[in-house]
Amino acid sequence: MKWYQRFDWIIFLSWLGLSLIGLVAIYSATQGPMHADTFIAGNFIRQVIHVGLGVLLIVLIQLTAPQSFQNIAYLLYVACLFISVLTIFFGIEVGGERNWLNIGGFRLQISEFMKTATVLALAAYLTSNRNTTARDFKTIFMIGFFITLPVGLITLMGDTGTSLIYIAIVPIILFWSGLPYGISLLIIAPALLAYFSVVNWVVALVLAIIIPILIYALERKPILTFFSFATCLLVVIGIQVMLMEVLQPHQKARVEAFLDPESYRLDAGWNVIQAKTAIASGGITGKGFMQGTQTQLRFLPEQQTDFIFCVVSEEFGFIGAGLLLFLFFVLLSRMLYLAVTHKHPFAQITIAGFLAVFIIHVIINLGMAMALLPVIGIPLPLISYGGSSFLSFSIMIGIVLNFYMHERTFSIYAS
Amino acid sequence: MDDNRRTNIKVVFITIQVVLVFVFLIFFGRLIQLQVLNYDKYTPISERNSIRQEVVNPARGLIIDRNGNLLVSNEPSFTITITPMDFNMESIPLLANITGLEIDEVEERVMTARRYSRFRTSRLFTDVSFEVFSNIQENIWQLPGIGHEVEGKRSYPSGARLAHAMGYLAEVTREELQNSDRYRLGDRIGRSGLERSYEPFLRGQSGNRLITVDARGQALGPFDGGFQDLNPERGTDVFTTIDADLQKLAEKLLVGKSGGVVALDPNTGGILAIASAPDFEIERLSGRLDRSYWADVNSNPDRPLFNRSVSSVQPPGSTLKPIMGLIGLETGIITPETRVYCSGGYQRGRFYRCLRVHGHQTVAQAIETSCNTFFYALIDQLVNRFGLNKWAEMLRSFGIGEMNGIDIPGENRGLVPDSSWYDRNFGVRRWGLGDLISLGIGQGAMGSSPLQMAVSTAALVNGGYRVEPHIVSSLRYEDGSTEFFPRERQRIPWFNRDHLASIHTGMRRSITETNSGNYFANVRDVEIAGKTGTAQNPHGQNHGWFISYAPADDPQVVIAVLLEGAGYGSVSAAPLASLMFEQYFLGEIRRNHILDHVLNFTPAPFNPN
Is there a single domain that holds both residue B311 and residue B426? Predict the structure, then answer.
């Protein structure tokens, strides 16, 4: 077969489409008259370079053998951990977060690359064990260990939003590697309960009763059921205590603003209201390229990064935003399909892990932009401005493409 | 194991695919909810966000007197503004130093503005003096975030106070805002006088400026190249019949007194001077509201806001006698030669006193000497032969007891009683001739305002035309076109000029002969005719009246004066009017002793007996 027949065009074209939408949106968000002579104005040209680099990286990755990723997975993981430590000590502090390392003019945000490395390391561990199921306690503990190190370091950098992503990878990887459904449910239960505890604690309480019943129905283990019930209750109570006692004032304000943006219209609710206004005023066809008043007059904070979806929605309307959603859906579904059909377990778990990272980013970022979730500073993959983030996601895409292209040769090594 | 794993992975695939579909369905649903269903709700929010509509206030119309002198004009009022975000709190002492305010107060104002909005510009000091304004401009480099706005405020360059005639402005009330879309919060609207009655003309049309603003509310420039802006239309200029010099004199002469003066042209009804005392300083009510002064004026027991020239109603007293005489002649009860014997009073049920024994009197003599007996007899005959209502009707056709339609608010109808009035107030058949006799000399249950006395006197001297008293003669619109207001003169139907001679003679002689008005009102070179009056005041000192016109053979000016609580009209009201004639016709006041007399006039101590 020719290379282009073994190349997964669906993934590559959705990657390209999303990257181009990102470029257009970043251009609109940074090249308006309001941004002339500000440092933001340089973002567009830098992102063009990032996309160029992305293409280059994807091509280079296609030239490497797939097993080399398995071989260097731990090395990459340790290297990223090391750079994280360096960042904590020598990083540039921006807005209370110290997660950039200045390397010869390029600001490296290691926490972005760490995502890729962690997934690779996890996959390598689960495969090397020759036991891709996660039924034993030791495996679960090791997965926890692999996750805890980067989460700890990234939390030390002050980037709590990103550390959330890692925690969210765990249940998907575990689920994938054969963790019983009941236990998988138990693992994601805290996240569900936490969300509903904030939005409506009565619903959360009802869920805290339903989930243990479901777990009992799936696993038929009374002790596990009781344990899950206790956990669920603890989460609901814990969240309430956290809301009242533990959270920093600015974090609390964000949560309250999410629940009731109108009351905080000038403070934390500002983002929520302006984001909703930007999206909704776009209508079906949008206000047109460079014509979005919310965008051009900078009503949207972080519009070229976290709130980039609003730029697309405002200027290109439901048609543009719908296309973006559609491309993401295609990309994620295709990754899922490849993960399932791939014959090599390392490739399977790696793709599943990347898929998890993508899904969590997309859900949190779009949920935040559309005011379904509280504001958490997470980039929208491939669309948001940011070199480290864009390149990290492009590397993931490159590896997925690589696995697909070399599936037959790679699969020889599979058991 | 493999088989088990196959089914396992299939379930995993389906689970995650279902979750994916579910998540994206939520996102699509939310997108439709926002962009399709809520589009209409958020579009105006986004427009309001980015376009600020600024109202450009029009310049209010000018008010000009009959000789082209500016009575009311506009002058800039300087307002210091602040944008709290750019402001440096350390410059508060400097600001306090320049404005002469306490540091605490400046800080308080800055904090108020800050609480309102950190980004928007608000007013910090309104209507500051030019000195403070220029001082701030000099130090502006040390005062980041401080700016200024120039607004308009009313000024009165002629020197005439004109408090009641021109009227003051005040901020629109919440109610007015709700009922009209012409005003916005903080606009000032005419509250009294011409400013109120000509408000729709004077105001002009405010303009609109659309400005694109950024998220911090800072102006970036005109929206859409200014094509959608609407230029303000300046207010219409109002030309009046006021004579600024005469007005100033009237005001000056009224200082320290309580009463009203109306001077008008008997041929047109154009008002030359209209003044009321006590008055207020219109300037202090015309800028930003001076609260303490407003409270002062509003609660003053002397009621300075009350326009006595059109609103005060008092029995006209003897000033009614000329018209009474004319009515007598017209109805045929008397002829110019009819003599009535005055024995010091009139006996009808009881004895109605006259001032002294006048002997035989013709109507001209009775007016000259102000003989009560003559008019007691006259009204007695009148009500017996023609009825009270005939008298009331004839009197009303002169404008007494009726609205005259002057173009400032506050006009009082006055009171000329007819039988139904008595029925209502005394009870049917509970009143009789005894209640009517004193009407003959303008006392009892009747009242008129200085304006009404001026209008009725005008009819008496212009040949029987009831004029429409007015202050405004024409309007000059923004485009330069002028609109004149033609004023109706209504011929009084029963009026017969042939009977005027004896009335005029009486009025002229009451000034020239050794009578009540002689000393104070006779001016050399100006032929004044008039009639004094004294209205009985059950609550205190009597009110002084004077109606007059000049020159006697070709009347150009009618003046009516009411001085409340000033005693006899001959010593209080008459000299005031005569000084005004002197000023008007001679251009100067020659009788300084009369001027001193009026300026320093104090009514004789009130004697309840």
Answer: yes
